[in-house]
Amino acid sequence: MAGGKETPRQKLIGMMYLVLTALLALNVSTTVIDKFVFLDDSLVRANRETEERNALVLESIVSLVNETGNRSKDVAVMEAAQEIRAKASEVLKELTLIKDTLVTLTGGYEEGHEGDYKGDAKHLKGKTDYDKVGHYMMPEEEGGEGHGARLKQVLNEYAEFVREKLTEIGAEESDLTYFKPIALDADEDPIYREDPNQQGKPFSTLAFDSSPTPAGLATISEFQSRVLSYETGAMDYLSKKVGAGDVKFDRIIPMVKPESKYVAAGTKYTAQMFIAASSSGMTPTMTYDGNEIPVTDGQGLVEFTANSSTFDENGLARKTYEAAIKVTLPGGIDTTYSEVYEYFVVKPTIQIQSTSVQALYLRCGNNLDVQVPQLGVSYNPSFSASNAKTYQSGSEKGQVTVVPTNGQDVELKVSSSGNYIGSRDFKVRRIPAPTITPGTNQGPIDLKDGMPAKTPRIFLNAVPDESFQQFLPEDAKFRVAEATVTLVSGGIGRASVTSGPQVNLGAIAAQARKGDNLVVEIKRVQRQNFRGDVEDFNNFNRIVTIPLK
């Protein structure tokens, strides 16, 4: 809630503090130590400005509570703000006392620069003292005086105090996430818990070990800044709670209510324009047909799935719903404003585009483009099918690949955003047989004329049906996987070879004579589908006879 309440100056100083703290791990020079003096001075001035700002916020809360009649809820908010301001002042004073003590322990100021801590820190006698601050703050078990434990207690008790006061006013846990404990041991701090060099270190060691005096002072000032930022966040939250139940129309925005968001070219766009006002000091209860809806910044979102089982001859179904807004007016009076609104449900029409939409080919990737124009840009399709598998086939909405898994009819079901739209039924075709066409290097063999008897090799090509290949080229890839070629002379088989799509005839060419025949028995044909998978295909012409000349 309050993470964004720090001024840009505070955020910049916080970043500088982290960088300069890291430099302490090095053998820093006096010049770098002087940077801590500058950082501490900037923190002190920024903190003073924040204190003044918080005091003004408290004054405005008190003034507003008085102006609105000191109502009990508002008085409780004011008292919480006063207690948080008083507690912050108490903590800041204690931290300032620690700073004064550190200055005294390290020798105070050089002659001519004496005075309280508002003096020039560049003239601290113990500016380069790396021991006394750590000794004063570190745990007793580590040889220190243990005052860091008290500092940790003060800081974290303040954070818890703020949480308790805001909870009493009605703050939710989401409003309190910013107000975490301020002083953390290394194992609790997300910055250091994974650092093997820091693991196990208590808060005081982590914050003050081996710190020169200006670094120690800057560290305390940074903790004061954290205290003030918590106070700032709490004050901002509480200031919004004063008069929270009042209806103050302080948010005014223009609203446009079009007859339709979709306009055909050449037709008029018509809309009503009006002012909508809401109050940031209250959250009304909004419902449609008794169903409560979420409200953000005074605006509710009516959202439901439009359905109907019956439609008129124009494909329309008239529907209505009651919109209601309940607000609590001054005096605690609940008032509800309601209105009945009319809308029409349009019967969706499934349109399918494909090279062939009357039937689908068995075990093939049949690409369909399924659209429901009535849904417009809200169309978010998903598909399922009986006796088939479905796959998304493109980047555009509605593109789907349907693969029938058996010879039974396929029912393709169409949904949009999980809502069922309708279905379409398809017949299933079997893949037509490819034609086995033998050929040589010179091209296809004329089976009537034949081929020379001494031809050294032939090729067996499985040529797909032309219409099928035109529809589904990615599924029309066939090859002869195995065939037996037999030399037949005088009706008697003389020699045989078994091969794939390319048949070497060297073993039988020497015996071949004009007038003989080569009988090709196709044993196995394979098909590669649209996904690159290869399967055996059983529909093909099994015997091809080639005359020899």
In total, the number of strands is 25
The assigned structural class equals alpha+beta
Radius of gyration: 43 Å
Mean pLDDT: 84
Q: Ends: how far apart?
A: 96 Å
Shape: elongated
Helix content: 25-40%
Characteristics of this structure?
five-stranded antiparallel sheet; alpha+beta; 549 residues; Immunoglobulin-like; four-stranded antiparallel sheet
Explain this structure.
Helices cover about 30% and strands about 30% of the residues. The protein has about 550 residues and is α+β, with helices and mostly antiparallel strands. It has four domains: about 5-240, no CATH class; about 250-345, no CATH class; about 350-430, Immunoglobulin-like (Sandwich), CATH 2.60.40.10; about 435-545, no CATH class. Strands 20, 21, 23, 24 and 25 form a five-stranded antiparallel sheet that branches. It has a four-stranded antiparallel sheet with strand order 4-3-7-8, with no helix packed on it. A four-stranded antiparallel sheet has the order 9-11-14-13, with no helix packed on it.
